[in-house]
Amino acid sequence: MRIATWNINSVRMRMELLLRLIDEAQPDVICLQETKVVDADFPFAPLAEKGFTHAHVHGMKSYNGVAILAKQPFVSRDVQHWCNKQDCRHAIAELPGGIELHSVYIPAGGDIPDPEQNDKFAHKLQFVDEMTEWWATKRSPERRMVMVGDLNIAPLEHDVWSHKELLKIVSHTPIEVEKLTAMQSSIGWVDAVRHFVPPDQKLYTWWSYRAKDWAASDRGRRLDHVWVTPPLKDSLKGYQILRDARGWEPKPSDHVPVIVDLDV
DNA sequence: ATGGTGGTGGAACCA
């Protein structure tokens, strides 16, 4: 089973690129973040033509929005809310074979890395704390689960272009890394991409729109992740980070798709 | 220290 996750930054703006991802990467399941569309307006038809006849969408006007697209029917579907908000950041679907798949969009957190000064940063930290507690109390490490999405945190030194320069930049601050690591430890999540790539090797999934030449400066961060629970660790068969997608015409997302293959 | 770009929606907000 090939699972792709992509912060698409508006599914309507980038439908042609989503169809290109399907043609070129041949995923079985696609998780999206930042769809930026209410469910009634989600563009189901072109996806159905490509075989993705099942869609679990959870969107809102203008902001956020997550989705899970599949060729096979879901066993069940659900959504989860965090921090007493209804902001469409977490969709859940059980796939045939008993794998529970989570498409997650953690808040970006604003610019100032201080929860006292910046409500958005406080929201981000609380979001991760709540989710950590939820995994620990509502889910078992024995369960076959895959969690993917834009976690908006780059936890390792080589998940950013410069560890030293980004220590005070939201997405790579010690408090965020500590909280994300705690979430990972909650039920023994395995970082599926780092399972294949040693920690001293640079990996990025996001490059800012604001760079003059994103590829030349290559100031990226690994914000998009695929985690699996221990029972699926031995099923991990490969990964791809579609760096080229950062240059896809006419208008690329600032994130690229991350793909993991599971032998299940 | 600043500003750089993009999506939504038609100003201001978010990333």
TrEMBL record:
Keywords in UniProt for this one?
Hydrolase, Magnesium, Metal-binding
What are the required cofactors?
A: Mg(2+)
The cross-references to InterPro entries, in alphabetical order and at most eight, read:
AP_endonuc_1 (IPR004808), AP_endonuclease_F1_BS (IPR020847), Endo/exonu/phosph_ase_sf (IPR036691), Endo/exonuclease/phosphatase (IPR005135), ExoIII-like (IPR037493)
Q: If you read the UniProt record, what top EC class would you report for this enzyme, in one word?
A: hydrolase
Q: Which GO terms describe its molecular function?
A: double-stranded DNA 3'-5' DNA exonuclease activity
Q: Which residues form the Endonuclease/exonuclease/phosphatase domain?
A: 4-255
Do you know which CDD domains this protein is assigned to? ExoIII-like_AP-endo
Spell out the PROSITE patterns in the cross-references. AP_NUCLEASE_F1_1 (PS00726), AP_NUCLEASE_F1_4 (PS51435)
Instruction: State which Enzyme Commission number(s) the record gives.
Output: 3.1.11.2
Q: Which family does it belong to?
A: Belongs to the DNA repair enzymes AP/ExoA family.
Record protein name field:
Exodeoxyribonuclease-3
Can you name the source organism?
Answer: Azospirillum rugosum
